[in-house]
Design a protein that fits this description.
The protein is an alpha/beta fold and about 425 residues long. It has 2 domains: about 100 residues, 2-Layer Sandwich (GMP Synthetase, Chain A, domain 3), CATH 3.30.300.130; about 270 residues, Rossmann fold, CATH 3.40.50.300. Helix content is about 35%, strand content about 20%. A hairpin with a 4-residue loop joins strand 3 and strand 4.
Length: about 425
């Protein structure tokens, strides 16, 4: 008797086989990603598969075509395989990338940042808005409260945090981990721990790295640094919406983002892109800081040199609170150049977190009055972050800590009959 021909596979069987074809770039199978549009099977076993790539000129097209062909051809009853390759439209690409970002967030690798540490990414749409000066002065204001604050200088190309804090030593390693440089702050045990490319490269040396190397540097700073149990980790982001920003959303998905802008309309419009990038990466936008909001002369007259209202407009546009308006003041630039942030130049100590926020000390000169205004703005900003925007995590009463106490108590009680 002649052999009975093997019937062709069903479309569902073919779809099941294609679930084994993984997009190497996105790390998920092409069926789950919605890249398989249509499957047609003839009675003679000829299979036609329509696949939509992210872009027509996808560099991985040949690899995906080969994987699809081999998977389908290996099924019993398939006599020939034909591929129809197309490209996704803008909406399909947007949905696909949103899925990929969510998957990356859910599968983020562990870092050396303690689970109780509140991570705040300080970002901006463009350079020149004073993002780094905001970062170091906010860190100082938090540390003055007795908090342990870390600064990760993720601006690999344009690092400036070391100079602003007057730190020049090289990073050292212990037990396979880099040890941050530490700056004690105030009289209540506060400190700032800093890691920057500036501690590995000379200040005048150009760092000519591209996407992969930039992301690897940030990954090392997150995974291979002994950060310890910090209250806050401030991440000084590079300006814009490039590789480091996207990498951080993947590597540290629990971070919140704070957007720094100036009052100018142009800066506000550019800064909105940073907020859009954060939300596409599923990061919470915790608020907006308007820097260089106005300059007040010695006679008490205020001059909005960079316009007005940009911070509030941005906050309204992205649906986030306006956290602070930091005045334009020469003391901030001078403090950064001298390695002594304006906040630290204004006070020697501050009350503990349980005490009221300090009022600026009385001043006898316009310059001192100017520094006091800056101090008051950053003290108020730190207060709002600690009490409202991103309160420090206290593990003393959490379930995990309670279970630890119970296990310890049971262990010390000894065996029971």
């Amino acid at each position: 008797m002649p052999d009975t021909p093997t019937p062709p596979p069903s479309a569902d069987a073919i779809r099941g086989a294609l679930a084994g074809v993984v997009d190497p770039e996105l790390g998920e199978d092409i069926v789950s990603l919605g890249m398989v549009r249509d499957i047609a099977v003839s009675q003679a076993g000829q299979v036609t598969v329509s696949v939509a790539l992210t872009v027509a000129a996808c560099p991985l097209r040949s690899q995906i075509e080969g994987d699809v062909t081999r998977r389908v051809a290996s099924l019993p009853g398939v006599s020939a395989v034909q591929l129809s390759i197309g490209a996704m439209d803008a909406d399909e690409r947007s949905a696909l990338m949103a899925r990929a970002r969510w998957k990356a967030k859910e599968n983020a690798a562990p870092t050396a940042v303690h689970p109780s540490t509140r991570a705040l990414a300080i970002a901006s749409g463009k350079g020149g808005v004073g993002k780094s000066s905001v970062t170091v002065n906010l860190a100082a204001a938090l540390a003055l409260r007795g908090l342990k604050v870390g600064i990760l200088d993720a601006d690999i190309w344009g690092f400036s945090v070391p100079r602003m804090l007057g730190l020049e030593a090289r990073l050292e390693a212990k037990a396979g981990k880099m040890i941050p440089l530490r700056l004690p702050v105030g009289a209540h045990g506060g400190r700032i721990d800093v890691v920057s490319m500036g501690f590995l490269s000379g200040e005048d040396e150009a760092v000519m790295w591209r996407g992969l190397m930039l992301n690897r540097a940030v990954q090392h700073f997150l995974e291979d640094v002994d950060w310890g149990e910090l209250d806050y980790l401030l991440i000084d982001m590079p300006p814009g919406t490039g590789d480091v920003q996207m990498g951080l959303a993947r590597m540290l998905p629990r971070a919140d983002m704070i957007i720094v802008t100036t009052p100018a309309l142009a800066a506000q419009k550019v800064a909105s892109r940073a907020a859009d990038m954060a939300r596409r990466g599923y990061l919470r936008v915790a608020g907006v800081i308007e820097n260089m909001s106005a300059f007040e002369c010695d006679h008490g007259v205020s001059y909005p040199l960079f316009g007005s209202g940009g911070g509030q407009r941005l906050a309204d546009e992205i649906g986030a609170p306006l956290l602070a308006q930091i005045p334009l003041d020469p003391a901030v630039a001078a403090g950064g150049d001298a390695g002594r942030p304006a906040v630290l130049a204004s006070v020697a100590s501050a009350p503990r977190p349980t005490e009221p926020s300090p009022a600026p000390a009385s001043a006898s000169t316009p310059g001192e009055q100017s520094r006091d205004t800056v101090l008051a703005a950053f003290i108020a900003l730190a207060e709002r972050i600690v009490t409202e925007v991103a309160p420090a995590v206290e593990l003393a009463g959490c379930t995990a800590r309670m279970l630890d106490h119970i296990e310890t108590a049971l262990g010390s009680a000894g065996p029971t009959n």
